[in-house]
Design goal:
54% of the residues lie in helices and 13% in strands. With 366 residues, the chain is of the alpha+beta class. It folds into 2 domains: 152 residues, no CATH class; 188 residues, no CATH class. Strands 2-1-3-4-5-6 form a 6-stranded mixed beta sheet. The relative contact order is 0.10.
Length: 366
Amino acid sequence: MTNTQKNMQQVSPGFLMSNIPGALGYHPDDCLVVFLLELHCADECRGEYHLGPMFRVDMPDLQAISEFAEYIAAWDPDLVMAAVIGDERTKATALEFERQCCELEVPLVAMWHVPELYSGARYVRIGGESADSLGPYTSGKAFWDEGTIGEIVAAPAMAAFRRRGELPDASRDDALEFFARDDKLVSVEEAAQLGAAATQHADSLLRAISNSGPAEAETLVDNLYDDLFELVDQILVEDISVRDLVAELEHVEQIAPFFARSALRDPLLEFAVSDNAEGFFRLCVAVARATIGVTRVNALCCAALAASFSERGHRVPQALQCAFEEDPAHRLSHLMMQALQCGGLQLVHQACREGSELALAALKNP
């Protein structure tokens, strides 16, 4: 029916849907998840479909469904499959998506409904083609109209979670909470003070660099970023958690000024697309949890970038969503969200490497 990797593994609807929590990073509810598939011709008689991008939209919202269908149509997919997760009201709204796909000539071949997404949950096809109408070379026909969700923990999308000994979050709200401030560790007042102090320190650093001679400026900048590299390395070597970083605050106070101004932030981007991405990710999340305003937003964007380069790709849309909520006009957030939506994060990685080098050179030569 579909292929998810180069070894051309044949999969069933239950297997396909078992990958949703691992791909999203949480167990979704009341939503529509859409899979886009690309046709690869195996021979003159048949073709093989490879799994491409996956998208999710909240339900039930008819206006959102209409816009979502138009968005899917713009991708010009070869084949589309959908999973409806939720109650009967959600199921009814999903049928509107099928109607919209028909009008827009989106090739929605099947849509399955499951009340809750867990291993062994039963799904039923509520839209698209029946098993009897499928072509003779279609695999998974025995489980097309109904079946059970596969083992979620064993799904390929869970591989990174298994390596870290983690599980997806229980809900989307829990996933977004990962980047939220912890009242037990940092109060609103403390977060505001940290943000203000970071801005003041950043401005002082930039003035000091600007007032220095060429050699002095280069030495000062090198020392600043060498210290940062040592901190990121220390986080990895000692396996310091985000919570521990926030609880002690010493490291957060040290790094926060780098996120307060773009001139200091941009040279950091190289850390996000390097072997130190995991350590940098933890540091960024710690700063985001402990500050507010532009410092938090920049930290969230850098966390998203580091997540996209490491094995935490599910955190990218979550971090960008939090950044957008903090500052809807933030430029870097918009650029990264656009790249995410069009599948261009790999291009962003290369741009960040080059841009980081240029930003560092500019900082050394004020």
